[in-house]
Amino acid sequence: MDNIPQAQKKYVLTDIMKKRKHQSSLNEERARQIKERILKKKQKTKDFIHPEKFVDKYRKQQTAYSYFKRKERKQNLETLDVKSIPINKTLLVVRIRGVKDISNKQEKILKEFRLNKVNTAVFVKTTVDIWKKLKLVENYITYGLPTRQIINDLIVKRGHIMKEKEIIALKSNEIIEEYMSEKDIICVEDIVNTIANASENFDFVTKFLVPLKLNHPEGQLKSGKIKKPLTKQGEWGYREERINNLVENMI
């Protein structure tokens, strides 16, 4: 190489450096592709679900659907005792179970109530149709008649409203007045009164309210009990005024 002119030496060295840089880039690209293939393979292995799990899930859904149909038939065939239903009263409904073994129809009803997650709660005004729907999903919920004090505590400590897809905490009466003054609702007390009395603006207020997020109550709603009704020392179902003792420990 000593016999090569100086200018030609520079050209040869530059060419070698370019080739090395190009080869280095190729090596890096190959290493990246290999790494991606390995990650994809791991992800596929992770996402793979054994057929037994599909079968088990299907069986659980069928069991839940059979329960749903039995409930549906029972309510359609038997005359509902309307006198036993607290018509036009405020109910506090709490979701206490997940969706691992739920039927599609029951899941749809829970979505209508906006009870998409465990340990969330909503206020509803009782009608015969609402009562029937609650009965059809009551093995996933517990519900009852809230006191004014519990309603107040829930609004003050857990209350949020939805406005234009934005969730806003009810930190002051100014927020309430801004969004609800068209119905002469300007403070927390107005909201509490509307809900407690199930008055004419009940739907307007509860539509604004985001489902209440609650804590899991210590020592209550244990996994073994939430699958049983209250009548069999379980947790799900209608608990009348006893709902207040439960929710007090969840706020």
TrEMBL record:
<dbReference type="InterPro" id="IPR039699">
    <property type="entry name" value="Ribosomal_uL30"/>
</dbReference>
<dbReference type="GO" id="GO:0003723">
    <property type="term" value="F:RNA binding"/>
</dbReference>
<dbReference type="GO" id="GO:0022625">
    <property type="term" value="C:cytosolic large ribosomal subunit"/>
</dbReference>
<keyword id="KW-0689">Ribosomal protein</keyword>
<comment type="similarity">
    <text>Belongs to the universal ribosomal protein uL30 family.</text>
</comment>
<dbReference type="InterPro" id="IPR035808">
    <property type="entry name" value="Ribosomal_uL30_euk_arc"/>
</dbReference>
<keyword id="KW-0687">Ribonucleoprotein</keyword>
<dbReference type="InterPro" id="IPR016082">
    <property type="entry name" value="Ribosomal_uL30_ferredoxin-like"/>
</dbReference>
<feature type="domain" description="Large ribosomal subunit protein uL30-like ferredoxin-like fold">
    <location>
        <begin position="91"/>
        <end position="141"/>
    </location>
</feature>
<dbReference type="GO" id="GO:0003735">
    <property type="term" value="F:structural constituent of ribosome"/>
</dbReference>
<dbReference type="Pfam" id="PF00327">
    <property type="entry name" value="Ribosomal_L30"/>
</dbReference>
<protein>
    <recommendedName>
        <fullName>Large ribosomal subunit protein uL30-like ferredoxin-like fold domain-containing protein</fullName>
    </recommendedName>
</protein>
<dbReference type="GO" id="GO:0000463">
    <property type="term" value="P:maturation of LSU-rRNA from tricistronic rRNA transcript (SSU-rRNA, 5.8S rRNA, LSU-rRNA)"/>
</dbReference>
